[in-house]
């Protein structure tokens, strides 16, 4: 709600149940999504300072005792030393041969490196190491125990194996009471780790070689059996291997095919010669003859014809020599004809011979092919047996080659794990520096003692022994602040009351305007802290029926228009917040325009902002409330600036004066002052301080609301008058 503006409907709406007797509920989120600017009821600086002033001596005494106990503990606890050995797992592999090792290195696999670390922490790795190092004889670690399970637990608690960042370096640290033993154990663990890495690769190679050797025996037997089956099948079916995946039968078929082809070619050539000779004979044409006799006869005939021609030219046609030459020519022609017939017969016989040979070869080829068709199933079975034998042979050769390589690699095994830096006896212990320990001990002692005193004060609920001295100082502080702040703010009509309040004597006995019975038995108990109690309840009680006399008393205040009621809490857990809420709710239920303004303390010297809450109340600082209530009394004030013109009742809850002493200045604007006090606290020191602070405002009607009144106390007066005086 802004100063000088009309109240929003939320400001006069019935308030929702509060979450506790003392502190308002945490503000809910507004419909527009904006959260309240401040939450009231949290730890305040003034409350914390008041608690420290009251319990400072207790806190310091307990802190000194805790500090002394801490010093004794530091002197008694043994000093531990940590030695670290660095082991590197080189991901690079030494390549002597091109063959891959049986167990390759870790390479770039970070998970494999972490797995090696976990193996080094396992019982299987540490158990033989504990036996080898005779840890049971070391009282610092074993502590008199000889059980292996306990020794493993104690030894592992001193051991730490970690990876250095993203590197391949492993840090092996061991803690002992003696620096020499810490370095000895760290180096022993590192050496055992390196040896185990090399042993793992050697054992893997040996196991692989032995397995390959045993496997070769079985593969050799299988190969022999398959090859024997192939040989037996060949012998049974008389199948000979001619090389290049061929049998003798197949080669025979191929050879006969070639012979048939050659015979057919020769037959065709002989037939062609025979037909040519026949055509030459019929046509009386002398064809090309290659026989020597026929060629010689033809040459003689040609020579004889030349001689006859010469003789005719010399001797004439009737010369006796010509007759002899003609007779010789006739003999030669007769011989040529005989030879030509012989050539025809020879060509015919050659043709017939070639044809017979061709037919014989074709018949032989047909017989061989028929036999191959009969032996086809045997060949299929033979090929199946041969494939099985070839597969067994291939597997056997691969295993044999791998066995030879693995057997040679036994002599080439080298470990990728090496000790990069052995551990040396440390010079400094594992404890932090002494100055840091003392500082931490001082801070821890102070915090622990403060918390312990706070818990004890919260459980007891009684004031501290130094409370009287503190309250006296607070009284003087309140009076000084009232003289400085109230004087310039009070209007002329209340100046006589201020002058009267300057008297040091206390106010007379105050009337009781309302009594609220003890309702704790009917409601769940609330939890609280030393700073603010209680802090939470399931729902706020409706105190309207018990505050009806107070409302009637407010109606009788001789002030026209709006009335301002100042509600103050006296002492601890008085319930002033709940009374103010219930009073505002009861006024609204009666049809009055009422608003509740709660005082919010300063934090770190800053004025808190004005905040509207969903429960219908408004929180603001002291200066803001003072300006709000005095805005209508200024000389240049406008009617809309006066908040009194908008409401019938303004309830200002100022809280506890012990926590906010400056709130006494709001009494100058009040038409009625309501003090909320627990039953039996009327004569307490807190009540005396409040009445002393209010002695300056005797003109303002002041009364009590007694909270947690015992059963059987006086009931509310039906006419709304005073219910009695405080006793």
TrEMBL record:
One of its GO terms (molecular function) is protein tyrosine kinase activity. Residues 209-236, 341-371 form a coiled coil. Keywords: Coiled coil, Membrane, Transmembrane, Transmembrane helix. The keyword Repeat does not apply. One of its GO terms (cellular component) is plasma membrane. Residues 1-27 are annotated as: Disordered. The keyword Membrane applies. InterPro entries: Bact_polysacc_biosynth/exp, P-loop_NTPase. The chain crosses the membrane at residues 59-83. This is Lipopolysaccharide biosynthesis protein.
């Amino acid at each position: 709600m802004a100063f000088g503006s009309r109240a929003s409907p939320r400001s006069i709406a019935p308030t929702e149940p509060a979450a506790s007797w003392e502190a308002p509920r945490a503000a809910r989120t507004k419909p527009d999504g904006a959260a309240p600017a401040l939450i009231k009821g949290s730890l305040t600086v003034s409350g914390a300072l008041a608690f420290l002033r009251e319990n400072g001596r207790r806190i310091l005494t307990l802190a000194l005792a805790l500090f002394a106990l801490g010093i004794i503990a530091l002197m008694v606890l043994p000093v531990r030393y940590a030695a670290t050995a660095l082991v590197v797992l080189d991901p690079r592999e030494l390549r002597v041969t091109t063959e891959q090792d049986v167990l390759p290195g870790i390479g770039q696999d970070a998970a494999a490196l972490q797995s090696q670390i976990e193996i080094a922490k396992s019982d299987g790795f540490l158990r033989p190491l504990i036996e080898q190092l005779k840890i049971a004889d070391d009282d610092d670690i074993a502590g008199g125990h000889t059980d292996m399970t306990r020794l493993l637990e104690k030894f592992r608690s001193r051991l730490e194996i970690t990876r250095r960042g993203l590197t391949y370096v492993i840090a092996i640290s061991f803690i002992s009471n003696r620096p020499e033993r810490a370095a000895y154990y760290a180096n022993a663990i590192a050496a055992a780790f390196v040896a185990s890495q090399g042993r793992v690769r050697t054992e893997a190679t040996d196991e692989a070689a032995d397995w390959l050797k045993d496997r070769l025996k079985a593969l050799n037997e299988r190969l022999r059996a398959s090859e024997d089956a192939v040989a037996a099948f060949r012998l049974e079916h008389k199948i000979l291997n001619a090389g290049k995946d061929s049998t003798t039968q197949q080669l025979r078929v191929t050879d006969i095919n070639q012979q048939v082809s050659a015979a057919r070619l020769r037959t065709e050539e002989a037939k062609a010669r025979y037909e040519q000779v026949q055509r030459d004979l019929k046509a009386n044409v002398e064809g090309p003859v290659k026989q020597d006799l026929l060629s010689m006869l033809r040459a003689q005939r040609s020579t004889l014809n030349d001689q006859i021609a010469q003789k005719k030219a010399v001797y004439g046609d009737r010369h006796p020599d010509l007759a002899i030459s003609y007779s010789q020519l006739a003999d030669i022609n007769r011989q040529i004809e005989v030879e030509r017939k012989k050539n025809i017969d020879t060509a015919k016989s050659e043709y017939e011979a070639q044809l017979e040979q061709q037919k014989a070869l074709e018949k032989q080829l047909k017989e061989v092919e028929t036999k191959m068709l009969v032996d086809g199933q045997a060949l299929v079975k033979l090929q199946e047996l041969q494939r099985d034998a070839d597969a067994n042979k291939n597997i056997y050769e691969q295993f044999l080659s791998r066995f030879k390589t693995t057997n040679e690699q036994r002599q080439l095994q080298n470990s990728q794990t090496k000790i990069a830096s052995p551990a040396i006896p440390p010079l400094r212990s594992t404890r932090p520096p002494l100055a840091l320990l003392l500082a931490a001990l001082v801070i821890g002692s102070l915090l622990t003692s403060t918390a312990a005193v706070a818990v004890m004060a919260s459980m007891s609920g009684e004031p501290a022994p130094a409370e009287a001295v503190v309250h006296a100082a607070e009284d003087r502080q309140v009076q000084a602040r009232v003289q400085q702040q109230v004087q310039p703010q009070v209007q002329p009509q209340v100046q006589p009351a201020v002058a009267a309040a300057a008297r040091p004597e206390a106010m007379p006995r105050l009337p009781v305007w309302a009594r609220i019975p003890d309702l704790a038995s009917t409601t769940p108990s609330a939890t609280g802290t030393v700073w603010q109690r209680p802090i939470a309840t399931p729902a706020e009680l409706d105190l309207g029926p018990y505050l009806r006399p107070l409302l009637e008393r407010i109606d009788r205040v001789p002030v026209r228009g709006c009335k301002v009621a100042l509600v103050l809490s006296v002492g601890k857990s008085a319930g002033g917040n709940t009374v103010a809420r219930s009073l505002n709710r009861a006024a609204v239920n009666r049809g009055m325009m009422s608003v509740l303004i709660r005082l919010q303390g300063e934090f770190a010297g800053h004025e808190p902002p004005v905040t509207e809450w969903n429960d219908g109340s408004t929180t603001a600082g002291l200066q803001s409330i003072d300006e709000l209530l005095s805005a209508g009394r200024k000389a240049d004030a406008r009617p809309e600036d006066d908040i009194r013109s908008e409401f019938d009742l303004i309830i200002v809850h100022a809280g506890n004066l012990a926590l906010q002493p400056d709130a006494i200045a709001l009494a100058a604007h009040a038409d009625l002052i309501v003090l909320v006090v627990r039953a039996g606290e009327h004569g307490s020191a807190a009540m005396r301080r409040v009445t002393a602070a209010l002695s300056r405002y005797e003109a303002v009607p002041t009364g009590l609301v007694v909270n947690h009144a015992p059963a059987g106390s006086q009931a509310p007066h039906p006419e709304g008058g005073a219910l009695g005086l405080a006793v």
